[in-house]
Amino acid sequence: MSEIALRQESVPATVLPASEDRVQWLLSSVLRNRFLPQPAPDSVFVGDGDFKAVGAEFLGHFIRMGGLQHESRVLDIGCGIGRMAVPLTQYLDFEKGRYSGIDPVEGGIAWCRRFITPAYPNFAFQRVDIAHDLYNPQGKISGKALKLPYADRHFDFVIMTSIVTHLPPDEVLVYLSEIGRLLRPGGRLFMTAFVVDPVAAANETGRRDPRLAFERDGDGPCWFVPDLPRLAAVGFDDGFLDGALGRAGLTAVVKSLGSWRGQAADHYQDVFVAEHRGSGA
Ligand SMILES: C[S@@+](CC[C@H](N)C(=O)[O-])C[C@H]1O[C@@H](n2cnc3c(N)ncnc32)[C@H](O)[C@@H]1O
């Protein structure tokens, strides 16, 4: 364990700053911590941006927008190469907090198992061979018939960052239904997406990210970027994800539109936080 982390552990709880100060202190300590594992830049296949800075940013969103707790049992769907997991090691309780990450890409899972689990045994990673045109074209499991290998009501918090931005709508529906099964009542999903609202569709502000020149795909809810492979960036009609969450037994408690459409926001993709409203029966 790093010297920095040991110093943090030794600070008595009574002198720790409260709430927002505490979050800021945590995020800056993640950013300063030279001992946190970090993959080689050329093996990071999960998107551009600084690996550590993006992870720290999302840890802040999970806590502030999602209400993530130290003792949460977390499922990270499409965990990639641990960009969300690495900062979570500094937040989830070592004894009671639990993290499970799944992804179809073997290299990312192997890196996480090698560099995260030995120091944090409450962090588990599993490869699931789900087919995906770009990430896992030879995959044996269809995303349209997916059953995740976990018991009903097992999780408090599910993460899907930059996942539905790469999935066709029928697979999004299967995932949301699975999340409805896996979350305990009151448990939460934190999901990012591209919601193609009128502002984004018309590039009303003229400031939309130029890489995301979405065009509607026929009569369906999907928007694709004509110059890119279809699943490189997927947007959805405004309302599609809200309706799908509702059908899965989840109620959106946060819907925060992101800066990709050209409007001010402290996050790039759109963010949904949705709560499981079931009785647990
Ligand atoms: C843009 S990356 C985001 C990774 C990670 N969530 C993050 O934010 O760092 C998309 C991830 O989705 C994974 N993926 C692709 N198809 C998937 C599927 N059907 N189910 C779960 N994950 C999938 C890819 O392997 C990749 O790791």
TrEMBL record:
It comes from the Bacteria. The keyword Transferase applies. Keywords: Methyltransferase, Plasmid, S-adenosyl-L-methionine, Transferase. The keyword Transferase applies. Its EC number is 2.1.-.-. Residues 75-190 form the Methyltransferase type domain. One of its GO terms (molecular function) is methyltransferase activity. It is an enzyme of class 2 (transferase). GO terms for biological process: methylation. This is Class I SAM-dependent methyltransferase. It comes from Sinorhizobium chiapasense.
